[in-house]
Amino acid sequence: MTKSLMDSVGQLTGVGPKREQALNHLDIYTIADLVTYYPTRYDDLAEKLPSQTADGEKVTFKGVVASAPVVRRFGYKKVMVTFRLSIEHETIQVSFFNQPWIAQKIDIQNEIAVYGTYEQKKQRMTGMKIILNEEENDMQAVYPASKEIRQSTIKELVFQALHTYANLIDQELIPESIRRRYQLMSHGEVIKNMHQPTDAVTAQAARRTASFEEFFIFQMRLQLIKQMDRQNQGRPVNFDNDELKQFITTLPFELTEAQKRVVNEILRDMRRPQHMNRLLQGDVGSGKTVVAALAMYGAITAGMQATLMAPTEILAQQHARTLGNFFAETDVRVELLTGSTKAAARRQILEDLVAGDIDILVGTHALIQPDVLFHNLGLAVIDEQHRFGVKQRAKLREIGMNPDVLAMTATPIPRTLAITAYGEMDVSIIDQLPAGRKVIKTEWVRHNGYEKVLDFIKSELAQGAQAYVVTPLIEESETLDVQNAEAVYQELADVFGPTYQVGLLHGRMANQEKEQVMAEFKANQFQVLVSTTVIEVGVDVPNASVMLILDADRFGLSQLHQLRGRVGRGERQSYNFLVSDPKTQYGIERMEVMTQTTDGFVLAQKDLELRGSGDILGKRQSGVPEFKVGDPVHDLKMMTIAQEEAIDMVAKPDWDQDPEIKTLVELLDETMARYRNFD
Ligand code: ADP
Ligand code: MG
């Protein structure tokens, strides 16, 4: 049988069904997976001195045994072996607990290496392991293992694979021209040096190339997906430019330069016969809705329909109303379809929709039911796209006749991640707020400053303003959330009443009830709205100028930013108060960052730095994939280069016929197959 890197790891000697399963659980299926199962770190036996070691660090010291081991027994079954170890000019004390046999293994004057936890102040190490063999490589690979499989087993299997598949591993992955341009190692060298580096410098260099390989393969995959997407049958949306221009003059405001730019990008894309897959990114309040409205109007002037899907009922209702207002003077017909649309009304809507009598259908995921059929759908808009799963997004693309898709997000993915998260989409960015917006003043107060904040709110209410009060988020329990909100509501009704009215909104209310409360608040029938986070997205009450968030450290930065975006939408100077007593440095920094910037992109970047890319927004939601070696945030430049090279590569005809990159092509085939099965 001819060997291939796509062979199952079950082919290796010593791997039976059970071990194979254990490997699978570590995402190791093929030989290619195994040889790129890189060590997370190396125990460097050569370099460290006690004086260079931090307190509490796990470390390996190599030295000479300076005193004969002393064995002490105490208590029942407790044994301690102690000896002194000289490392160059420093001497430390080493103790092993409950490993009495250690004493037999070491002799005074012997050169050994000891791995353990070092206590800097006491110059003492609690040993975990001794390494006697001086012949061993200084750089000892450490693999992430599991309960089912030991790290030494992984090490042996990697070793075996490196030998058995040596000539295949030596085959190049990245074209030589690219390798030379960026001074990368050959693929064979990378693999070998990742697992068995001779020294730290080589390990570092191998890691650099391994990151690039990983990014390059990732970007190649995105480019291929993009290519498949483009080949997907799309239809040109031949909009009427004059009608659009005319419509724009009827808007109640002048578009910002950024809005004009993205409208052009979107319309240009829609006119092309290929399928559009575009992301519209813009901070809260940047005015994405009107951009979407113009794109939808474009489709309508081309004789097609449009749809807008929002993540919540409140948002869908609001969008339907906003669009209704935009199009009030036109004959565009906007309808709303959600889970609470009554059966008779629903039937009528479906009938009119398929007949082409409805131009824009706004709704929640109730839109993607099999019986919702369009007459001629040209454009599908998804608001807050990260709130929908991959499946729902894919489904929306399948309704109608593969409509152009415009996804919107107000969760600014920092530029450093956008290239990774949205690599297969084209991105339009609104990087400007409408003129005349006053910067929201943000203040962080500790709980003992709460009363003062309430006094301040009173003085704002006296001037005719309205205020939101967001109650703490309790992740585990919606019941507690609601109880909390009710308690705060009672308290504030006392504080602000009877002069001002207080309202309550929470997740346990029926949709109709919520809608009612929002409508009343918008109509200023009450002045203070106490709420759980249900008001988080999209809600628009321009007269509200205070956003008070209790226990603010329970929220993520992005969420705080979204909440803050509920104010500052009108003429009034707006205020955001964050009440919290964070217990950690991380918590304190987050509060401080909030007071320092109102730029969502800056916040998202900061969030990323504080949390690390692994955690941003929850991986699944943001769509940011995990990498084995590379860090897409810190190695952004490398990711950018990998993208550019991948774009160039797939643009060349027959690039996949080049025998030099057979391994790459094989790998891509495999991953593309996995991608297709993804949904
Ligand atoms: P978001 O991007 O957060 O969805 P919206 O589309 O809800 O923002 O817009 C926020 C508010 O700004 C709305 O009241 C909208 O009418 C208004 N708006 C949008 N564009 C402009 C503009 N160019 N000039 C003035 N106001 C605008
Ligand atoms: Mg919006």
From TrEMBL:
Boundaries of every Helicase C-terminal domain copy: 449-609
Keyword DNA damage: yes
Any Pfam family hit: RecG_dom3_C
Catalytic activity: Couples ATP hydrolysis with the unwinding of duplex DNA by translocating in the 3'-5' direction; ATP + H2O = ADP + phosphate + H(+)
Enzyme nomenclature, EC number: 5.6.2.4
The entry's keywords: ATP-binding, DNA damage, DNA recombination, DNA repair, DNA-binding, Helicase, Hydrolase, Isomerase, Nucleotide-binding
Residue ranges occupied by any Helicase ATP-binding domain in the UniProt entry: 269-430
Gene Ontology biological-process entries: DNA recombination; DNA repair
Gene Ontology terms for molecular function: 3'-5' DNA helicase activity; ATP binding; ATP hydrolysis activity; DNA binding
Top EC category: isomerase
InterPro entries reported for this sequence: ATP-dep_DNA_helicase_RecG, DEAD/DEAH_box_helicase_dom, Helicase_ATP-bd, Helicase_C-like, NA-bd_OB-fold, P-loop_NTPase, RecG/Mfd, RecG_dom3_C
PROSITE patterns referenced in this protein's UniProt entry, alphabetically: HELICASE_ATP_BIND_1, HELICASE_CTER
Keyword Kinase set for record: no
Function recorded in the entry: Plays a critical role in recombination and DNA repair. Helps process Holliday junction intermediates to mature products by catalyzing branch migration. Has replication fork regression activity, unwinds stalled or blocked replication forks to make a HJ that can be resolved. Has a DNA unwinding activity characteristic of a DNA helicase with 3'-5' polarity.
Xref: NCBIfam families: PRK10917.1-3, PRK10917.2-2, recG
Family of the protein in this entry: Belongs to the helicase family. RecG subfamily.
Protein name: ATP-dependent DNA helicase RecG
Organism listed in the record: Weissella viridescens
